């Protein structure tokens, strides 16, 4: 692929939505996407801003204080990106893949990042097009150490409460028992992210980074997950509607989930989804799509590293407050915890 920042600026003629984040944020929580500022602008303006020029769209955000990230844009349904799909060589990399068109597009500055999370559906391949990205991955067995939460709520995403830009292992001591795998992807590298593996991803060095992901559904496993996702949304929307109007709980939902929660038929839709998937028969193993690569890939297995080696100096971390407050958000988050949803799902099957 011959993409470059200038090439994308020339080809992408419509505006993209860039999430804006602070470079020096050191709060206890991650910079959640639902709390972020967003700028809609052209890739031309974005590239110019990255190179130190003043632009109208980024006028309030000095480049040395803020990063920007156009993230998780579905290429097939984003008009500005659909023409670029033909450039992505998934067909030659995986010639037997049944549908290689589920790509998402990521373009960001150095220090732009995706908070630590795992995806509840399928598996994921990542092609680093240009720039460098550092991936910190954790196996599913590390879930008890990573403080999972469903608030903020994004369908198919379980977040970690830990801010990996400034992880506070006084407040979150269990992260010291985790077993991270670390790799920095460079242009042309491909990473396979197995099912339910946690990952924190950040653009590193003084580069603009571009990557393309390919999501592969696993229907024989995902039907169960779709039921659990519907249960999570049903609980969240119901509790949010009972909360006081000034509680701000509705703002803890991502945009798509917030729009769904405000629709008139969310309850019936979710109940129908639960009913459909709780009674569905899983596909046999032979029915699942087979992912077979050609002879062009040379895979390497990542080894675990000591998490202390990738955390900042503890002397630089802010100490947590000594108080313990049980607020409305914590109560709702407890009801939405994956362990609770798993128990509800198991009871439905009795």
Write the layout of secondary structure elements.
Blueprint: H1 5-11, E1 16-22, E2 37-41, H2 43-50, E3 66-74, H3 79-82, H4 90-93, E4 103-108, E5 113-119, E6 123-130, E7 133-138, E8 148-154, E9 157-160, E10 181-185, E11 190-193, E12 198-203, E13 209-216, H5 219-242, H6 255-261, H7 266-278, H8 328-336, H9 338-348
Antiparallel strand pairs: 1-2, 1-3, 3-4, 4-13, 5-9, 5-12, 6-11, 6-13, 7-10, 7-12, 8-9
Helix pairs in contact: 1-2, 5-7, 5-8, 5-9
What does this structure look like?
With 350 residues, the protein is α+β, with helices and mostly antiparallel strands. The chain folds into 2 domains: 213 residues, Cupin (Jelly Rolls, Sandwich); 90 residues, no CATH class. The protein has 9 helices and 13 strands. The strands form 2 sheets. A 7-stranded antiparallel sheet has the order 2-1-3-4-13-6-11. Strand 8 and strand 9 form a beta hairpin. Helix 1 packs antiparallel against helix 2, helix 5 runs antiparallel to helix 8 and helix 5 packs across helix 9. The chain is globular, with a radius of gyration of 21 Å. The relative contact order is 0.15.
Looking at this protein, list some descriptive labels.
globular; single chain; 25% helix; Jelly Rolls; six-stranded antiparallel β-sheet; alpha+beta; 2 domains; 350 residues; seven-stranded antiparallel β-sheet; 9 helices
